[in-house]
Amino acid sequence: MAEPILTVNNLKKHFGSKNNLVKAVDDVSFHVMPGETLGLVGESGCGKSTTGRTIINLYDKTGGEILFDGKNNDSLSKKEQKQFHQKLQMIFQDPYASLNPRMTVFEILEEGYDIHKLYKKKKERRQKIYELLESVGLNREHANRYPHEFSGGQRQRIGIARALSFDPKLIIADEPISALDVSIQAQVVNMMKNIQRERGLAYLFIAHDLSMVKYISDRIAVMYKGKIMEIGDASDLYDRPFHPYTKSLLSAVPQPDPHSEKERRRVGYDESMHGYNEDEELKLRDFGNSHLVYCSQKEYESWTV
Amino acid sequence: MMNEPILQMKNLEVDFKTYAGTVKAVRNVSFDVYKGETLAIVGESGSGKSVTNQAIMKLLPQPPAIYAGGEILFGETNLLEKSEKQMEKIRGNEISMIFQDPMTSLNPTMKIGKQITEVMRKHTKISLGDAKKRALELMQLVGIPSPENRLNQYPHEFSGGMRQRVVIAIALAADPKLLIADEPTTALDVTIQAQILEVMKDIQKHSQTSIIFITHDLGVVANVADRVAVMYAGEIVEIGTVDDIFYNPQHPYTWGLLGSMPDMNADKKEELRTIPGSPPNLVHPPAGDAFAARNPHAMKIDFEKSPPMFEVAENHYAKTWRLHPDAPRTQIPEVIRNRYIQYNGGDQ
């Protein structure tokens, strides 16, 4: 089997002081293979965005290790750090807020090349930027316009073009379509899938819309209060959820189908329902087919029956 | 279920004066809202769904907004002819509204209890003690635990879902006949959204309040709506019962909306269906069918003349030339046909 492009081991990110400690990311481990999409879902405040931001170094991690392309993030040389920043990119939720309103699209896309001192010849650089625009379904006439002249969907395309400018191996997409209309969401998702197929890049797709996540992801991880509750193959996780939190989350998603909506019964989730003893060891246990669930030994035995 | 309508919107036109010209944001919109029903209005941003409903409350600042035509009958009276003073008696009393973001609709410096009782005290002669009692009842009704303590707290001490419950409690405080909910769950997590929808449905069962529910989430529509109106470019392009719209849609735009949302059973290898292009500029609305330019099935007449509303069945209307008796039979996309077959059994 190929080596994962990203491996996260026991990642921790805590905020606040000793008396008021928030364990936003609490001992999270997973990996992303080249060319695959890992969906990271959970409710607001579960730590999914913090996980993404910590991986790309927007936050300093509290503990654990991040291996990108086989190299440990802590022991990178200056040159390797530059590589890291080129090959790992991010797309943000709000396309309005993530583009500088005073810069033209050309300047926005050019900025990264300035910083990394690439494509210094004018002609070469222009060519490269036109290619980027075309790869996200925009055209070269758009290069001289400002962000406010674009619709929400087009702005998100600009954000994606910027993320693609260094031929990344992994893009962390933090709720990239939540701010867009349904019909535009479909356009952007199709485009992201096409780009993935052409370039073989991997996505860490962070979202709360479970139907879209299922559609785009190969594997899915469910987070709750800073921990991964369940991780596995996308359809396996939806068809055969083990953890009561996953079941609760899935049962809450309304479907565009009035008949099944009348039948749908929501199941609640309350941590106390586990009734864990203090001496029980809680960890991700393997339920087969790389489907891992966070549970105690007792639960493992009763759920696998 | 169909009884007398409590609200009748007739040929409403709303324009906005801007530097770029006059934007025709709402164009000839008509619909009725019946007692005790939920009418969902769906459409993309800019389709005019929020403006239409802000017009009912007369919340649009004039200028730039102009009520260019039509009438909104609430009972016997035309709301568009009411003065600002008269509207104040209706807002929050007979018609109330819930907005998307609960934090911006609550006063951050006022205790929750005061915010709920304020509405009652404004509209009815009620003693402070009785108002407080009623506030407690309302908080229980919308599912806020230990209301006695919560009454004395400020909005920042509530979570997003709890804040939206407070907003609903305020909206219900004066027993409105009509509740307008503008994307009330869009900012909330799915689990919280499910709870809020349950609360709203429960209340409706109790009090027979009519609800206009504005949203772009078709899953939510399937869950709450009795009837659905689909808006595009300032017009209603299709209106019918929730089953009509989901299982027998007639307008190509409705097809596009239904097709672009993956459901949980969607095949991953298949591309999501998209609606090509973008909505028209409403400074110069197109002469014919506003959706023609994005409609792969468009006919010549679609570009020339705006279609009327054709009756598909009782209470189901769609504004598309393909329903004209002389129009050639268009191929209904397979996803949509499957929906029909799956639930009605048989071909169309």
UniProtKB/TrEMBL annotation, chain A:
Keywords noted in UniProt: ATP-binding, Nucleotide-binding, Transport
Coiled-coil region(s): none
GO BP annotations, alphabetical order: peptide transport; transmembrane transport
Alphabetized CDD domains for the sequence: ABC_NikE_OppD_transporters
UniProt xrefs under Pfam families: ABC_tran, oligo_HPY
InterPro entries with a match to the protein in the record: AAA+_ATPase, ABC_transp_ATP-bind, ABC_transporter-like_ATP-bd, ABC_transporter-like_CS, Oligopep_ABC_C, P-loop_NTPase
A GO molecular-function descriptor: ATP binding
Annotated protein name in UniProt: Oligopeptide transport system ATP-binding protein
Automatic annotation (TrEMBL), chain B:
Name used for this protein in its record: Oligopeptide transport system ATP-binding protein
Lineage, opening ranks: Bacteria, Bacillati, Bacillota, Bacilli, Bacillales
An individual GO BP term: peptide transport
Keywords: ATP-binding, Cell membrane, Membrane, Nucleotide-binding, Transport
GO cellular component terms, semicolon-separated: plasma membrane
Pfam family, one: oligo_HPY
Source species of the chain: Salinicoccus halodurans
Domain ABC transporter: 7-258
Top-level taxon in the UniProt lineage: Bacteria
Membrane topology: Peripheral membrane protein
Similarity comment: family membership: Belongs to the ABC transporter superfamily.
InterPro entries named in the record: AAA+_ATPase, ABC_Ni/Peptide_Import, ABC_transporter-like_ATP-bd, ABC_transporter-like_CS, Oligopep_ABC_C, P-loop_NTPase
Chief location bin: membrane
CDD domains: ABC_NikE_OppD_transporters (cd03257)
Listed GO MF terms: ATP binding; ATP hydrolysis activity
Localization per record: Cell membrane
